[in-house]
Amino acid sequence: MNKKGRTAESGRLICLWIGTFICTMVTGVYVYIFYTSYKEQIPEWNALAKETFVEALNLEVQKRGDIVVPFVAGDSPEVKTLETPFKSPVTLASKYGTHRYEIPRVKFDNSLIKDTERRMLLSYVLEKHPLDADALNLFWDSLLVEKSVAANTGIRLSTTDLLKKTSTVYSSDSIKVLQGDSLLSRYIGFRCEVGVTGFVSYDWWRVLKVWPPITILLLLWFCFFLLLLYYKQVSSFLRQRLVKKEIVVCIQEKKIIVERKMHLEEEAGQTGLYELADGTILDSEKGILTNGEKTRQLRPQVIVLLKLFLRTENYRLTAEEIDKELWQGKGKPNQLYGVIHHLRESLKGISSLVVEYRDEHYCLKMPHSIEKNTEKG
Description:
Elements: H1 3-62, E1 90-94, E2 97-101, H2 105-109, H3 116-128, H4 133-146, E3 152-160, E4 166-170, H5 175-178, E5 182-188, E6 194-201, H6 204-207, H7 211-229, H8 231-242, H9 244-271, E7 273-275, E8 281-283, E9 288-291, E10 294-297, H10 300-311, E11 316-317, H11 319-327, H12 333-347, E12 354-358, E13 361-365
Antiparallel strand pairs: 1-2, 3-4, 3-6, 5-6, 7-8, 8-9, 9-10, 11-13, 12-13
GO molecular function: DNA binding
Keywords: Membrane, Transmembrane, Transmembrane helix
């Protein structure tokens, strides 16, 4: 694997660890907040469920309030108090004979109605018109919905007849709810013979407003996996957007200069690039002289002459050699002096090299190597 591949794989691994950490932290914080909120609200929901359960049961009983019940009061005087006292056992005569019935104190304390006469009336009414578990459950559920509590409810009705046999019925679709603990029970009748027990459970996704945060979490994880899947494409796009100028100005420029310095003599003919002694670059194909940010366009004859200097040993040329190269030996002195003048002007301000005439040779030299002499041309 090359260096670029190792760098990409390393970046992908770092992205994996950072992304996993962030997504896990966000998910963990939300789960903690949700769990705490859920636990704190359960007691409040249970209180509302108990309140609506008793309300629904009272309303169901009141629906039977217009039923006529034959009732005969005894001649014996009876002392009553504001609070009905607990009495057990009780004696009751019916078509099955006279029997004594034990009433557990817990049932009496949780009676829907404690008044003795009303309990006796309810025993008769509920025997003729018993409660319906499904109807009561639907009524209870509707009251909870009005109070903005989304709960699963269930009802169990237990009835003990005059022969002390107990029968039990359940509301439909409440098997799952009935597996948990009961919420509360209420008892109706003279013998507390009708027991109504309510069951409730809560689905957190229905009770709490969780779908918007869950959607955000799912989108967060989805974006994270997309980033891992298309990591190379995303990182390449970001590099192009963020470091495009840096690549063009810095990296490319340095690469060209190094190549010119190392391969000038071997590849100058192929690339058309020449480097002068002071680092000035001649692009013979474009006819441009470059030194840092300075550039200058050269005349064609000046380009040929400068290339001739660079290819000659010690950068020395005679007038005959220049004439032969530029004009095939048919040039005139003023043409020679003119092209030398143009070369000198082209070098000024962009290169520290100068053209000097010495010992019948034109020399391309650095200024510190030039001795005092009499210039010709």
